[in-house]
Specification:
Layout: E1 12-14, E2 16-18, E3 21-23, E4 30-34, E5 41-46, H1 50-70, H2 73-89, H3 91-102, H4 106-127, E6 135-136, E7 142-150, E8 153-157, H5 163-176, E9 180-184, H6 191-203, E10 210-212, H7 217-225, E11 232-236, H8 239-250, E12 255-259, E13 265-268, H9 274-286, E14 298-302, H10 306-318, H11 338-354, E15 357-360, E16 380-383, H12 390-393, E17 400-406, H13 409-417, E18 424-428, H14 432-441, E19 446-449, E20 468-469, H15 476-479, E21 482-490
Parallel strand pairs: 1-5, 8-9, 8-11, 9-10, 11-12, 13-14, 13-18, 14-17, 16-17, 18-19
Antiparallel strand pairs: 2-3, 4-5, 6-7, 7-21, 12-20, 15-16
Helix pairs in contact: 1-7, 2-4, 2-6, 3-4, 4-5, 9-10
The chain binds 1,4-dihydronicotinamide adenine dinucleotide (NAI) and magnesium ion.
Length: about 500
């Protein structure tokens, strides 16, 4: 028998990690995180607030000024590499906990999330020794060079959709560049970040280099974003909160990077390999229960293939196995929380009210036993959607796709770009000139041609427009965690003549 609760039924307990010590919150408060497949409590977690964030920022500052800045780049890289290996050795346990806390199917946490978590730490481990300055060809008897230095203390606020992977995307480049971190996991999914804290200690990072303060957005998150003691704030989450963070950071002129919402167009031309495109539409919207910022949530179909495509898409969507996320055969688990489930149901009503058709799904599935209390939703396809409708413009963040038809390429590009967002886009066609023309014309940070939801630690990811700014992963991520110092040296040995002798 499989169960969505790993190990035991007694809730796990976690404290805050500050300055290398596990401790209760100053207030003594805790919060519970449920298993979204069953609604049962998975863990009880210390609830950080402003006082704890203050302590964590102070610890991160001491670590930055102390041991961490004196450590060689090679040793920093070795610590990151050690961490990647520890993660690999614990990946089954971590995947089970990720599934229990977030609800994503075990085949995703085990074969997508965890391998990419390890990959990111490994990739940035190699970068620690390759962060270099430049010599600049300035005129005269002068020598000018640059130093690329860490920023200092970085606040990092992460979401619940890929809890450990989002922590890895942010921590790995920050640490490779020599910063220290205060990390706030999402209140819905704090568990694997706390487990990561244990591995960070086991790897041997000096105390205070990584501090982890689980807690709520309005309290711990807001205290971190507005803290005058941090040098940078990195955030992934809703566009609404992203704007609040940018406002809060502005008072201290704290550097900000934001990875926010999306409403990606996933576009199928009539000349596409239709079977491949159907698989891409599935990957685009049903992967991770649709809780993906770059999800292909606007499916644009060329009019002439619409009927054939939708028949196949409906048949495939109807066969998705929804249920116990710990079961290896499950393809979709529950949504992360009852709030998110409620939000999705709300959009089904909005779609109907706007005149769209619920073509597939639109309801909660009937499951048995403990799973009756889980936050499950059926794979859902809205047809007859117009790009101006709210369901085509607002991020739903669930397994819900809006199908929109188009006539020709000009009609398509206009509609595809008519959105506040610009995180990603997909196109399915055999015409290479059209595919690359589209890649230039679409305003989005990532374009997938005849594929979707592809990621690699070496490839940059981030938004255009209101999907945010800054790029995570790849060498671009290091730019967000370093600053450049220009150093001038006189080589002439002579006085400066400007004011005479
Ligand atoms: P959210 O943006 O409120 O939460 C993300 C993170 O921000 C969490 O760690 C949260 O504690 C923190 N946070 C919340 N309010 C804060 C504040 N005032 N100051 C500082 N930190 C704060 O997202 P939420 O409410 O969980 O989900 C709502 C919608 O946001 C989703 O339906 C989805 O559309 C979008 N979202 C997008 C994500 C992405 O990957 N871009 C991830 C999660 C949510
Ligand atoms: Mg929120």
């Amino acid at each position: 028998m499989s169960s969505a609760q790993p190990a035991s039924e007694t809730p796990r307990k976690y404290q805050l990690l500050i300055d290398g010590q596990w401790m209760d919150a100053e207030s003594g408060k805790t919060f519970e995180t449920p298993n979204p497949a069953t609604g049962k409590t998975l863990a009880e977690v210390a609830e950080a607030d402003k006082a704890d964030v203050d302590k964590a920022v102070a610890a991160a500052r001491r670590a930055f000024e102390g041991k961490w800045s004196k450590m060689s780049a090679r040793d920093r890289g070795r610590l990151l590499y050690k961490l990647s290996q520890l993660i690999e050795s614990k990946s089954q346990e971590l995947a089970a906990l990720e599934t229990a806390d977030n609800g994503k199917p075990i085949r995703e946490s085990a074969y997508v999330d965890l391998p990419q978590v390890a990959e990111n730490f490994e990739y940035f481990a190699g970068f620690a020794t390759k962060i270099e300055g430049e010599t600049i060809p300035v005129p005269g008897q002068m020598f000018n060079y640059t130093l690329r230095e860490p920023l200092g203390v970085c606040g990092q606020i992460i979401p619940w959709n890929f809890p450990l992977l989002m922590a890895a995307w942010k921590l790995a480049p920050a640490l490779a560049a020599g910063n220290t971190v205060v990390l706030k996991p999402a209140e819905q999914t704090p568990v694997t970040a706390m487990e990561l804290g244990k591995l960070i200690q086991e790897a041997g990072f000096p105390d205070g280099v990584v501090n982890i303060v689980p807690g709520f957005g309005e309290t711990a998150g807001a205290a971190l974003a507005s803290h005058p003691g941090i040098d940078k704030i990195a955030f992934t989450g809703s566009t609404e909160v992203g704007k609040m963070i940018a406002h809060a950071a502005a008072d201290n002129l704290t550097r900000v990077s934001l990875e926010l919402g999306g409403k990606a167009p996933n576009i199928v031309f009539a000349d596409a390999n239709i079977e491949q495109a159907v698989s891409g539409a599935m990957m685009g919207i049903f992967f991770n229960q649709g809780q993906v910022c770059c999800a292909g949530s606007r499916l644009f179909l060329e009019e002439s293939v619409k009927d054939e495509f939708l028949e196949r898409f409906k048949e495939r969507a109807g066969r998705i196995k929804v249920g116990d996320p710990m079961d290896k055969g499950t393809q979709m688990g529950p949504q992360v929380s009852s709030e998110q489930l409620g939000r999705i149901k709300g959009y089904v009503d909005i779609a109907r009210g706007e005149g769209a058709t619920v073509f597939v799904g639109g309801e909660c599935p009937q499951l048995e036993g403990d799973f009756q209390n889980g936050y499950f939703f059926q794979p859902t396809i809205f047809s007859e959607v117009k790009n101006e409708m709210r369901v085509a413009q607002e991020e739903i963040f669930g397994p819900v796709v809006s199908v929109i038809t188009f006539r020709d390429e000009d009609d398509l590009i206009r509609q595809a770009n008519e959105t506040l967002y610009g995180l990603s886009a997909g196109i399915w066609t055999q015409d290479i000139t059209r595919a690359h023309r589209f890649a230039r014309e679409i305003k989005a940070g990532t374009v997938w041609i005849n594929t979707f939801n592809m990621f690699n630690a070496a490839s940059p990811f981030g938004g255009y427009k209101q999907s945010g700014y800054g790029r995570e992963m790849g060498k671009h991520a290091l730019e967000m965690y370093t600053q450049v110092k220009s150093v001038w040296v006189d080589l002439s040995g002579k006085p400066i003549g400007w004011f005479g002798k």
